[in-house]
Write a structure and sequence with these properties.
Pfam family, one: HTH_20
Number of strands: 3
GO molecular function, one term: DNA-binding transcription factor activity
Protein name: Helix-turn-helix domain-containing protein
CATH topology: Arc Repressor Mutant, subunit A
InterPro entries: ArsR-like_HTH, HTH_ArsR_DNA-bd_dom, HTH_MetalResp_TranReg, WH-like_DNA-bd_sf, WH_DNA-bd_sf
Keywords: DNA-binding, Transcription, Transcription regulation
CATH superfamily: Winged helix-like DNA-binding domain superfamily/Winged helix DNA-binding domain
Distance between the termini: 28 Å
Length: 108
């Protein structure tokens, strides 16, 4: 995800996803340690797997992480996540451009 091509809705999704300290920790852990599967990441971050799944879902919907389901040697399904490459340059001009494409009306 490159910030120059973000629509208003994409910008809102990314900023919303990053506005939570748990999700910031998830992105930081994946950026530092590379791809990881949910159970291991939950242990490293000291967070429950169900709660981690909710945070990962929000990050994935915003395009900030990606996932891939793989089978282990013993046939167990492991969902691996990794940080997606992204850059968000927040400038007044970029925000003004993104606002023109908003489809979400926050006043509703």
């Amino acid at each position: 995800m490159k910030s120059k091509h973000l629509t208003g809705d994409q910008l809102l999704a990314a900023l919303s996803a990053l506005s939570n300290p748990h999700r910031l920790r998830v992105v930081a852990a994946l950026a530092a340690g590379g791809r990881n599967y949910v159970s291991q990441l939950a242990r490293e971050l000291n967070i429950s797997r169900p709660l981690l799944h909710l945070h990962l879902q929000k990050l994935e919907e915003a395009g900030l992480v990606t996932s891939q389901l793989e089978l282990s040697a013993d046939g167990k399904a492991l969902n691996f996540f990794e940080a997606a490459p992204f850059a968000i340059d927040l400038t007044p001009a970029m925000i003004a451009e993104a606002v023109r494409t908003l489809t979400t009306n926050p006043e509703k």
